[in-house]
C-alpha cells in the first residue's frame, strides 16, 4: 500500500505543474424570461475540466485557462444555451459580457458530476446516468422521494408499504440489498456497521433541500470503491447561496399520513451562508399479519404488530468562503424512525432507529477533501417472529397475558419466572456501530490530459453485543484504503477517451484492482459510448459475521468458512470462506436528441460475475442429519444448535453472466407537453437449473431459490407530462407502470409460482410471485402565487393488487395533498427551492 501512495503522490506532484501560457474567462448569466441573474449556473469549457458556477449576481470567472480556442457551455435547470466559441490569450482575460439563457423543458442539458467526478453534460457522460431535478421533486406532492425513482430508466423500485421503498438495478434483488451504493453530496450515506443497508427512512435529507439526484447504473468501483458494482444514487443538496429563503410544506393523505417539512437558508455576507432543514412524517401502513413457524408450537400469527410509522429528520450546514473559488462546509444531520422492516428471516419492529453524521468539506476548483463520521443506534428494535415465539412459549408455560406481553420483548433468564423455568431469549437488536471516512481528490489539466487522482480511507466499527453479529470478542473493526487515478483526453473534435483505475486494500480481502475505460463519440446531436468497467463487492460485515439463532434455525456468516458434519457418519464437508464478488461489464449506449423534440437514451450491457454472492441460502436439509460444527477454526456446535438442524448463510457461486437493455424515449409535443416510454430487459444464465455451477449450497441439485433472477425480465413505463399551463401556473403528470410476475427468494422469504399459496418448511408462507400488475399514478399542482403552491397525487389510481415485496402487504391506492409556502429570495418558475 505504501508503494501505491508513493506513486499517487508522485502523480499529484506532476499534475500540479502549472501551464505557463494561461489566461482567464469571465462573464454574467441572466434568464431570458425574467432578466434576473441565474445564480449557480454551471459554466464549462468543453474538452477540459475548467469551469465555474455563477454567483448571486450571475457572474463567473474561470482562472488558469491554457491559451487556445474553446467552446463555452452554460447549463442551468430548465434553460438552455448554445455553445459559444471563445479564444483565450496568454495573460489576458476573455470577457463574454452578459448572456441570456432561454427556457426549455428538454432533457439532456443538465450538468452532472457523479459519472466522472467532474462536471459534464448529461448526454456526454461516459455512463448510463439519469437525473431527477429539483423541479421534478417540487412537482411531486408527496413526502416519499422514492416514488420518483419509478420513472428513472433501468431502476427497479419495490414498495414494501406506504413509506417503505427499496431500490435495485440489474436484477438479483434480496431482502437485505446493498447493491445500490448511495451518496449524499459525495458522502457515503449507507448505514454503518453490520448491515451496510441504505439509510432509507432514517436518512437526514428532506425533499425541499434536494437540488438533484444523479443515478448511475453499472459498475463504478474505479471511482467510488467497493460495493459500487450495480449502481450509484448521489443526492446533491441545495447550496444556500443559490437557494436562499424559507420553504414550508404541509401535507396529508390516506393511511393517516401527516407530514410537515421546513427549509430555511440565508446568506449572511460574502463569506458566510447557512441552511437548516427539518421534517416530521407519520402514518399507518397497510395491515398484514405474516405467519411465524415454530418447531414446537407450529404456525403462529405475528404478535402485537404495530403498523404505525413515523420518522423525523433534521440537518444544518454552514458555508464559509475564505477566498474566491474556495468553500469550507460543515454539516450535521440526524434522522430517526419507527416502522416495520422486512428481513431474510421475517420482519423487524423498528422503534427509534437513529442515524447521524458530522461532515466537513473543503472544495476548490482543483481540490476536494472531506472527512466525516456516521453513527447508528438501533433503539428498541426487535424481531417480530422471535417475540411471537417468546409470547406463545410464555403462555404455554402458564404465564399471564401481561407477563407474557412484557417478557416476550425483554427476555427472561433461566429460573427467573419460577424455579427451573427455561430462558426466554432477548428478541431485540443492539446496533451502536459507527464509521469514519476520509477522502482527498485532486484534478488538473496537463498537456491536453484531464487528470483526477484521489486517496480514501474507511474504518467500520460494528457493535451488536452478539444480538445479530458474532462480536463476542469485542467490536468488529475493518479498515479499507483506496487510491484512484483517471485520465481523459479529447481525440479530435468528437471523440473522447477515458481510462481509470483504483486500488483498494481491505483488512480481510487484501488488495483489489478496479479498472475502467470508455470511449465516447459525439454524433447525431448526442453521444455514443462504449465502456468497460470492473468492480468488486466486498461482503458486508453482516455477510461475514452474522450470528442469529432463534432456536428453530441458525443464520451464520461465512466470512471464515463453515464446517458441516453428518451426525450419523461423522463425515464433514466445507462451506468455503466468502470471497468478494468481482464483476466485469461491457456496455454500449447512446444518449441524445437526434431531432429538436425527440430524446433517446439507450444502453445495452453484458456482465460477467466471478464468485457471485448469493442471497441468504439454506445449506442443510430441514430436520436432516447435518449440523454446523465450526466457523473457521472455532467450534460453534453448541452455539449454533437448533431444533430443525437448519442453517443458512451467504455463498459464492462460480461464474454468473447477466445481460440487459434499457431504452428511454421522450417526445416533446410542445414547450408544455411531453410523452415518454421506458423499457428494460434483464436475463442471466443463473436460471439454467441443469448447470451445477449454479448449485450454491453443494447439495447436488439447483433449486428454484438458487436459480432465481429475483427481478422481472421485462419492465415497462409510460408517462405524460404537462407543465407551465394557464399562465405558468399548472403542472401535472400521468405515469403508467407495467410489472410482469416474477419469482423471488431470499432466506426464509419466498414468492414463487411453484408451491403457490403453500408453505414448504422451513420457508415462510408462499403468497405467490411478485408483480403481475399495471399501476397508474396521477399528480397535479397549481401555483396560486410565487409563495403558494397546492399539489395532489394519487398512486395506484385503480387500486390494483400491487404486491411488490416479500413479507409485505398488498399496496392499495394512496393519495396525498400538499400545500407549499415559499418566502424570501428571488424565485422564477424553474428556480424551485
Automatic annotation (TrEMBL):
TonB-dependent receptor-like beta-barrel domain mapped to chain residues: 330-797
Pfam families: CarbopepD_reg_2 (PF13715), Plug (PF07715), TonB_dep_Rec_b-barrel (PF00593)
Statement: the UniProt record of this protein carries the keyword Signal: yes
GO molecular function annotation: carbohydrate binding; siderophore uptake transmembrane transporter activity
Gene3D superfamilies recorded: Carboxypeptidase-like, regulatory domain, TonB-dependent receptor, beta-barrel domain, TonB-dependent receptor, plug domain
GO cellular component, one term: cell outer membrane
UniProt domain TonB-dependent receptor plug: residue ranges: 122-232
GO biological process terms on file: siderophore transmembrane transport
InterPro entries: Beta-barrel_TonB, Beta-barrel_TonB_sf, Carb-bd-like_fold, Plug_dom, Plug_dom_sf, TonB-dep_rcpt-like
Signal peptide as annotated in the record: 1-20
Membrane topology category: Multi-pass membrane protein
Main localization (coarse): membrane
Cellular localization per UniProt: Cell outer membrane
Keywords of the record: Cell outer membrane, Membrane, Receptor, Signal, TonB box, Transmembrane, Transmembrane beta strand, Transport
Keyword Membrane: yes
Superkingdom of origin organism: Bacteria
Family as reported in the entry's similarity comment: Belongs to the TonB-dependent receptor family.
Protein name: Iron complex outermembrane recepter protein
Organism placement in taxonomy: Bacteria, Pseudomonadati, Bacteroidota, Cytophagia, Cytophagales
Amino acid at each position: 500500500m505504501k508503494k501505491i501512495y508513493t506513486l499517487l503522490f508522485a502523480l499529484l506532484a506532476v499534475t500540479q505543474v502549472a501551464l505557463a501560457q494561461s489566461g482567464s474567462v469571465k462573464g454574467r448569466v441572466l434568464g431570458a424570461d425574467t432578466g434576473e441573474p441565474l445564480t449557480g449556473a454551471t459554466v464549462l469549457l468543453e474538452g477540459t475540466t475548467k469551469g465555474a458556477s455563477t454567483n448571486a449576481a450571475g457572474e463567473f470567472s474561470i482562472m488558469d485557462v491554457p491559451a487556445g480556442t474553446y467552446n463555452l457551455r452554460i447549463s442551468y435547470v430548465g434553460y438552455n444555451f448554445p455553445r459559444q466559441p471563445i479564444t483565450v490569450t496568454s495573460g489576458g482575460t476573455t470577457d463574454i459580457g452578459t448572456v441570456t439563457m432561454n427556457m426549455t423543458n428538454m432533457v439532456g442539458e443538465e450538468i452532472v458530476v457523479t459519472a466522472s467526478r467532474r462536471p459534464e453534460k448529461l448526454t456526454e457522460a461516459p455512463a448510463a446516468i439519469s437525473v431527477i431535478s429539483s423541479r421534478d421533486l417540487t412537482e411531486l406532492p408527496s413526502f416519499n422521494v422514492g416514488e420518483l425513482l419509478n420513472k428513472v430508466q433501468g431502476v427497479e423500485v419495490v414498495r414494501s408499504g406506504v413509506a417503505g421503498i427499496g431500490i435495485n438495478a440489474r436484477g438479483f434483488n434480496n431482502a437485505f440489498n446493498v447493491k445500490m451504493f448511495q451518496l449524499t453530496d459525495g458522502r457515503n450515506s449507507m448505514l454503518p456497521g453490520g448491515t451496510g443497508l441504505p439509510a432509507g427512512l432514517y436518512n437526514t435529507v428532506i425533499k425541499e433541500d434536494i437540488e438533484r439526484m444523479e443515478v448511475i447504473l453499472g459498475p463504478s468501483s474505479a471511482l467510488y470503491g467497493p460495493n459500487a458494482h450495480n449502481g450509484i444514487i448521489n443526492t446533491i443538496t441545495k447550496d444556500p447561496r443559490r437557494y436562499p429563503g424559507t420553504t414550508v410544506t404541509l401535507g396529508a393523505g390516506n393511511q393517516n399520513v401527516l407530514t410537515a417539512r421546513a427549509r430555511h437558508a440565508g446568506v449572511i455576507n460574502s463569506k458566510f451562508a447557512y441552511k437548516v432543514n427539518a421534517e416530521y412524517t407519520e402514518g399507518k401502513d397497510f395491515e398484514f399479519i405474516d405467519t411465524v413457524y415454530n418447531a414446537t408450537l407450529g404456525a403462529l400469527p405475528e404478535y402485537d404488530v404495530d403498523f404505525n410509522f413515523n420518522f423525523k429528520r433534521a440537518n444544518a450546514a454552514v458555508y464559509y468562503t475564505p477566498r474566491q473559488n474556495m468553500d469550507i462546509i460543515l454539516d450535521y444531520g440526524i434522522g430517526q424512525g419507527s416502522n416495520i422492516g422486512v428481513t431474510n428471516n421475517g420482519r423487524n419492529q423498528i422503534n427509534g432507529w437513529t442515524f447521524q453524521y458530522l461532515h466537513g468539506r473543503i472544495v476548490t476548483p482543483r481540490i476536494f477533501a472531506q472527512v466525516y463520521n456516521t453513527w447508528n443506534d438501533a433503539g428498541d428494535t426487535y424481531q417480530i417472529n422471535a417475540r411471537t415465539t417468546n409470547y406463545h412459549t410464555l403462555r404455554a408455560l402458564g404465564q399471564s397475558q401481561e407477563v407474557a406481553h412484557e417478557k416476550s420483548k425483554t427476555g427472561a433468564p433461566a429460573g427467573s419466572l419460577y424455579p427451573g423455568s427455561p430462558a426466554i431469549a432477548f428478541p431485540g437488536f443492539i446496533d451502536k456501530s459507527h464509521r469514519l471516512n476520509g477522502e482527498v481528490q485532486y484534478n488538473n489539466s496537463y498537456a491536453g490530459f484531464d487528470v483526477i487522482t484521489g486517496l480514501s480511507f474507511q474504518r467500520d466499527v460494528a457493535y451488536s453485543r452478539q444480538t445479530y453479529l458474532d462480536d463476542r470478542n469485542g467490536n468488529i473493526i475493518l479498515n479499507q484504503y483506496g487510491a484512484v487515478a483517471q485520465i481523459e483526453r479529447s481525440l479530435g473534435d468528437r471523440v473522447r477517451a477515458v481510462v481509470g483505475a483504483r486500488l483498494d486494500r481491505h483488512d480481510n480481502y487484501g488488495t483489489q484492482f478496479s479498472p475502467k475505460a470508455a470511449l465516447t463519440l459525439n454524433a447525431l446531436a448526442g453521444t455514443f459510448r462504449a465502456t468497460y468497467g470492473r468492480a468488486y463487492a466486498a461482503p458486508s460485515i453482516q455477510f461475514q459475521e452474522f450470528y442469529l439463532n432463534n432456536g428453530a434455525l441458525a443464520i451464520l456468516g461465512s466470512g471464515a468458512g463453515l464446517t458441516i458434519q453428518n451426525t450419523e457418519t461423522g463425515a464433514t464437508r466445507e462451506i468455503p470462506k466468502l470471497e468478494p464478488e468481482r464483476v466485469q461489464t461491457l456496455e454500449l449506449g447512446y444518449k441524445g436528441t437526434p431531432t429538436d423534440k425527440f430524446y433517446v437514451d439507450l444502453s445495452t450491457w453484458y456482465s460477467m460475475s466471478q464468485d457471485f454472492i448469493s442471497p441468504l441460502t439454506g445449506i442443510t436439509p430441514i430436520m436432516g442429519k447435518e449440523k454446523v460444527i465450526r466457523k473457521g477454526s472455532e467450534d460453534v456446535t453448541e452455539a449454533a444448535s437448533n431444533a430443525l438442524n437448519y442453517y443458512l448463510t451467504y455463498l459464492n457461486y462460480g461464474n454468473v453472466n447477466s445481460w440487459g437493455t434499457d431504452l428511454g424515449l421522450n417526445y416533446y409535443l410542445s414547450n408544455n407537453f411531453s410523452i415518454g416510454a421506458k423499457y428494460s430487459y434483464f436475463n442471466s444464465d443463473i436460471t439454467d437449473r441443469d448447470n451445477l455451477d449454479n448449485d450454491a449450497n453443494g447439495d447436488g441439485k439447483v433449486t428454484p431459490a438458487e436459480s432465481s433472477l429475483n427481478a422481472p425480465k421485462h419492465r415497462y413505463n409510460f408517462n405524460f407530462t404537462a407543465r407551465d399551463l394557464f399562465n405558468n401556473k399548472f403542472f401535472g403528470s400521468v405515469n403508467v407502470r407495467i410489472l410482469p410476475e416474477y419469482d423471488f427468494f431470499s432466506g426464509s422469504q419466498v414468492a414463487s409460482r411453484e408451491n403457490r399459496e403453500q408453505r414448504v418448511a422451513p420457508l415462510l408462507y408462499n403468497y405467490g410471485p411478485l408483480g403481475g400488475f399495471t399501476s397508474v399514478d396521477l399528480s397535479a399542482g397549481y401555483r396560486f402565487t410565487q409563495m403558494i403552491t397546492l399539489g395532489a397525487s394519487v398512486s395506484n389510481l385503480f387500486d390494483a393488487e400491487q404486491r411488490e415485496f416479500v413479507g409485505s402487504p398488498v399496496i392499495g391506492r394512496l393519495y396525498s395533498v400538499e400545500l407549499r409556502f415559499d418566502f424570501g429570495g428571488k424565485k422564477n418558475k424553474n428556480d424551485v427551492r
